[in-house]
Amino acid sequence: MAMNLKSKQGLNEYRQKLRLGLVESPKPLDPIEKSRKNPNSLRFAINARCFDCSGFERSDVTNCEMTDCFLYRHRPWQNKASA
Ligand code: SF4
């Protein structure tokens, strides 16, 4: 989808303000915060559950070995090549 001229100007102004430090870039949300902001998203709910289960470590979700867990095949951040 092409951006119209007004949108491009607005984006460029925002980027300029970011560079000059006039606005702060938005803080990235962790998976639990994302799920709370999007309570109807099953994907975000699964991501949040695995993130919580693994002690807030994405790498532990990636390396999860609990193959009998119902979420195992759906867990985020897994290495698809080895799944
Ligand atoms: S798949 Fe692994 S990390 Fe996700 S909920 Fe199950 S045991 Fe926890």
Brief overview:
By secondary structure, the chain is mainly alpha-helical. It has helices at 5-20, 31-37, 42-53, 58-62. Helix 2 (31-37) runs antiparallel to helix 3.
Which value, in Å, is the CA radius of gyration? 18 Å
Tell me, what's the shape?
elongated
Q: How much of the sequence is in beta strands?
A: under 5%
Category by helix and strand content: mainly alpha
Compute the number of strand runs. Answer: 0
Number of helices: 4
Q: What is the string of helix and strand elements?
A: HHHH
Q: What distance separates the N and C termini?
A: 34 Å
The distinct bound ligands, ions and cofactors come out as:
iron/sulfur cluster
Low-confidence stretches: none
Biggest sheet record: none
Report on the structure:
The protein is mostly helical and 83 residues long. The chain has a domain at 28-83. Helix content is 48%, strand content 0%. It is built from 4 helices and no strands. α2 runs antiparallel to α3. The longest helix is centred in the N-terminal third of the chain and has 16 residues, at 5-20. The model has no long low-confidence stretch (mean pLDDT 93). The structure holds iron/sulfur cluster (SF4). Residues 49-50, 53-54, 61, 64, 66, 69, 71-72, 75 line the site of iron/sulfur cluster (SF4).
